[in-house]
Amino acid sequence: MQIPSIRVLSPALELLGEFDAYTSLQFSRLWQGVGDFEFHLFGELDERVLAQGNLVLLDADGTRAGIIRSVEQDDGEGGVTVTVRGQTLNGLAGQRTTLPLEGEANGGYDVVPALESAGQTPDPVPAETILKTYAGRHLANPLDPKRKIPLLVLAPDQGRGMETVWMSRFEPLDEVLQAVGEYTDMGWGIHLDPDGGNLVFDVLPGVDRTDQQSENSAVVFALEFESVESLKYLRDVSGHRNLAYAGGAGEGADRTVLKVTNNAEEPEGLERFETFIDCGTLEIVGSDTAMSLEEEGKHKLLDYPRTESLTATLPQGGSFQYRRHWDLGDLVTVLDRNLGVAADMRIAQVTERYEAGSYGVDITFGEAPKHLGRVIRSLKNTVR
What we know:
Layout: E1 6-9, E2 15-19, E3 24-30, E4 36-42, E5 55-57, E6 65-76, E7 79-88, E8 110-112, E9 125-126, H1 127-140, E10 152-154, E11 163-164, E12 166-168, H2 173-184, E13 187-193, E14 198-204, E15 220-222, E16 230-236, E17 243-247, E18 257-260, E19 274-278, H3 293-301, E20 307-314, E21 331-336, E22 341-355, E23 358-367
Parallel strand pairs: 10-14, 15-21, 17-19
Antiparallel strand pairs: 1-2, 1-5, 3-4, 3-22, 4-7, 5-6, 6-7, 8-12, 9-11, 13-14, 16-20, 17-18, 20-23, 21-22, 22-23
């Protein structure tokens, strides 16, 4: 992998400076959330170039781009060191809040799809439509022009992803987009289009590169194939909740409270993890609409998943090269006999590390969702 130069652009996308003599750089991209970056430089700070709100760019196509959030100077025996930290462009979504739609039809919520009359049952729409509707309402084409993110546009909606409905109310937009993405198995991102002179919001469906399909070249990460340097598997249920008492309309003993779970059957015994979820003033119970207390409770319960993460460090010059053979959001096959892992998994996060002329790539995987019909295969029963 070629060590990239760091180009710095103004919010109007004017080139302000370029750095290739940095001492270290770390850049993390997330498939369904906001990544971050950090780099270090020696020398005096150019406040015009390295200023909060300026953009950084690592590649010509604008995929690896971010916005500077903080600049720190440290004057020591070795001279002045400048540390620049920021977020990927997805962080722009964190600057906006979902505002309720006007009128009584939507019950004081930001609903996708929007309802035209009270009591209307919404028709489910694709995940891409939901994500781009929220991005349009609060980033690209808000009703209040003061809320618009300059230069940000939406890529055309191709209607991809599972169909559902969504609702929100005064929540950080980045968290809503992440929740929609996790629920529907769809990635999203904001990238810079140098040719068009825009920031573009688009979905990231990912490519199926597992070893059981034949449409695309397969990518298998395994120590025995020398495509990974190390693997670490973490399982944690300390923050997990699988049953919620969702509170809706009313106060005290008169408040509507509904028991909800996303499990096929109500969990019990040691497998039951309870919590209370505040769902505002929702009154509709047992409905199939996005306005129901039941659906809102289920959506919010997704914020308490089991933590199950698999991270890998890739060797330099390994079998599969980042952004050439695979990219963020792709489905790949991961094998490790010692850890007992044989799974088709999403590439959920990629972190690039550059320091002292060397580089490294770390991957965080997420298990492929069940609705895609993928299951973890037991190594004991698998012949390879």
